[in-house]
Structures are given as C-alpha cells and as structure tokens.
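Input set for joint prediction.
Command: fold jointly, output tokens.
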Amino acid sequence: MSERLYPGYGRDERTTFAPYGAFEVPADLRELFGRYDVEAMARRVRNFRYAEEWTMMVLGGWMATIPEVPVKTGLGKIVWDGAQGADALGKRLPELRCGRKAVDASEAANDGFAKLVQALAEPETPDLTIEKLAGVFDVLKPHLLAVYERTMRETDQITDAPTIELLEDIARRTRKHVAWGDEVLDRLCDTDGKRERRRRRVAELRTQLEACGGVTGTLADEQGRAH
Amino acid sequence: MKRFIAHEELARDSRFTRQTTALSSLIAQLPDDVNAVVALFEKFAPLIEKSTRGTSAEALYDAYGPGFGLVTNTQALKPGDPATETRLKLRMHGIYVGELQALEGAGRSLWDFPDAPWEFKMNMARQCWDEARHVQIYEKLLEHVGGTPGMFPESTFLFECACADDPALRVAGVNRGLEGLACDVFRDMIRYAEEVGDEKMRQAIDYVLADELTHVRFGSDWVREFCKNDPERLQRANDYRKQVDKQFNFGGARSEKKDSAIPIAFEDRREAGFTEEELSELVGLCGEGPSRETMREAARVLRERHRVRKAEQAGAKS
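tokens >
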C-alpha cells in the first residue's frame, strides 16, 4: 500500500502519520477547568477596567495640582499605561459575550469600591502629594497587581489564555508603577512626620479596601482560599 | 477632587514665580497705537517688576523697563546677535512652562470630562505621555542653552485661555490653538538650530514637532465629532479657537512674514489638518491689534521713560 497523505473514506484509507494528543508535543501538563466561567471572567474584566480607567483619570487630574515636576512627568507615562490597560480590557469584553459595544464598559464591583476610588481622589491641594501617591501606589496598585496575578493563576490556562495574555502585560506595567511610586514616596517622606502621613493614609485606605472586598468585591473569599 | 480648576491653582515648586496674565489678554484687544501700548505697560509696571524680582528677568527689567518682554518677543532669533542668547533662554523657558501647562491641560481633560467618549480619553492619555516627555526634553534643552527652570517668571495664560468647560472648546483651544502655535514656534526653533549647526536641538525639536501634529489632529477630529449635528457648538468652538489664536499672536510677533519673530508654519499646519480657510483666517488675525513696528516703538518709549525714572531716583537719593 502506498503512503497516504490525506484520509479516504474506508477503514484502510487512513494516513500513516503518527498520532499525538493536542498537548503532547511539547508535553503540556495543563488541565482544563479554571475558577471563573465566561460570565464571571467578563464581570472581573469590567471590574478591572473600572479600576484602570478611574485611576488613570484621577492621576490625570492630579498632574496640575502636584508641584514636584518629576512626579508630574512620571505620572504622564503612568496615565498612558493605564489607558492602554483599560483599552485592552475593554477589547476583551466582546470576546466574552458582552456584546460588540461593550468595549468601553466599566463596572465597579460594588458601591464600596466606587467610594474607595472617590476617597483616593479626594486629596486636592499641592501640599498633599504624599496622600495622593500613597493611595494609588501603596494601596490600590499593589492590590490590583495581587488580584491580576491571582486571576492569571486561577483562570483556565487554555480556554482563557487571551485574558491571561493581556493581564500579563498590565501586571508587568503595574509592577513598574508600584516600584516607581515606592521610590518617589521614599524620597518625599524624608521626615518622621511625613512617613507618619504616608502610614496613616495607607492604613485608612487599606481598611476601606478590605471592607469593600477590593476591585472584585471578593477579597475576603480569595484571601481565605489563599490561606 | 473638584472638576475645573483656575490657572492660579496650577502647582509649582519653589523655583517658579508667576507673571501677570492680564497683560497678554489685554494686548490682543489694543488698537495699533504706540501710546495705548505704552499706557498699558506702565499701568502694569509694578506687577511686572514684582514678578521679575529674584529671577533672571530682573536684569532685563533693570535695562529695558516694563517693556522688556516686547524687546525679546518681537525679534527673530538670529545667530550672532548679542541679544540672541537671552532671547533663546526666554523662548526656551516659555516653551518649557508651556509644555508643563499642556501636560496639565491634557490631564485635566481626563478628569474634567469623565463622561467623554473612550477614544477621547485615549487620545488625552496619550497626549499626557507626550507632553510629559516634552517637559523632560525642554528641561534638557533649557539646560543645553545655559538656562534653568524657574529662571524667568511663568505666564500661565496658555492654561488660562485654552482650558474651557466644554470639551469641544477645550480641544479647539488647546489642541488647535495652543498646539498650532507650537507648530509655528518649533518650526522656527528648528530653523535657528539648523543655522547655528546645533544638531541636538534640531533633532529633539523635530521629534516634538511630529508629536504636536498628532495633537492638532486629535483636536481637529474631536471638534468635528463633538460638534456633529450641532452648528452652533461648532461656531462657538471656532470662535473660541480664533480668540485663542489672537491672544497667541504676542503683539504681532507671529505672522505670515518670513522675517517675523515667529513665522506661521503653513506646511506643518496643513499636514496637521488645518484648512486653507483656517490658515487665511489666522493670517488675518495676525494682522489685527498692534503691529510689530508699534510694539518696537512702544518698547523704545518704555525704555527711555524707565531710564529717565531711574536717573531721577538716583538723583533724589544722592
């Protein structure tokens, strides 16, 4: 029998190519099933988009009221990173059955998280750079980073790979933002009094963050699971 | 954080002082009359003097009196001219603070208009990054020509006259008025850099100019989008942009003439989306108000009077 390149209709009309499962070359030990179904992931993506969009808008508003020039310019790039993150999250929504027009849909997980964002945005005058930055770079962004990383670990690695890909990119940028914010705050908080202002602001907002359950409203469940 | 802030609320560190913005707005409304210009500057002389104290402009005030800005603004940058070094620092510093205000304006557009379309927010966010880089670039260029941030008083009139409450007017003022002016000024700076063989300055400003064309396009697109099916709003946006353009003429410093202090960059503006009709209007607006010759003569009169006053004060003391 000559070697067949394409299968025919009869039992003896198969090709001669060796059989492999979808994950055998190279070996892939990932298993199907993740913590979030399509609907749950779509909700999370809307929650993440809300956080990214509002953080970017708040930072944009602050650039005029922050006197430190390197902070203004540093925030310029972070605003653009945030917009790109929100944009990528929005583009994922139609792929998660939210409708074609869902690309700009943002949703707070609950009223508590929406209020937290407003509390973050509260500091206004030029003497409050520490309070402004501590809220975003010591509290919100580290929280978002932790949730993004957990989501990437817990979602189905195969069926939800597009979400993982975009979160990888957002997490990479968020890590840089947190490091930048930490460096700037360390520099700005050069007295015990200023360090205390930073600590107080962080404690106040962290309490509020924990009370509302964070960006997805499910922080307590997720932390419990992690422990 | 409240929405819509006044220009007085722009935050600055201890290096900066402010310059009155009233003068810039009033000049645009003056007739082409030397006496009117002189009277206006004399009225504002105490404020002008106050804002120069402790800055590099103090020496300029001492030499030229309250009209020192006219001496520097109305002349082109010419290699070999002894006044060019000061003029260049003044212009570079003016651009540096202008970029700061453009960054702040773009950022405020994100906060002031939370319900704006997502693509608008994307464009403003991108502009924030671009303007932040421009601040960094011009800080380096300012140092490159021997200047430092805060060496001259800052006029916040770019922010003041370009930041309207309606997003259509905001982009008309900031993205088309202010960024259009940037096209003119940067093309002239590139011309100067080429003449003196300053490759670092030429290349850096060339990149910045490319960004500015993009920002003007953002403005052209969003004025069209916001004013779609609303001819009255379009009229208001166009009137606002014209008003901003008029205020940015700096008393005849900008014009279509090649020997003007800031020639209109027609080619760049066309590429950025300005129509022939808009360019003709701009040329017309540049011809309104005091001419460059009037401003020069006013500067001469102000300098003479300043010298006389100084001599009288010195005489009284002795």
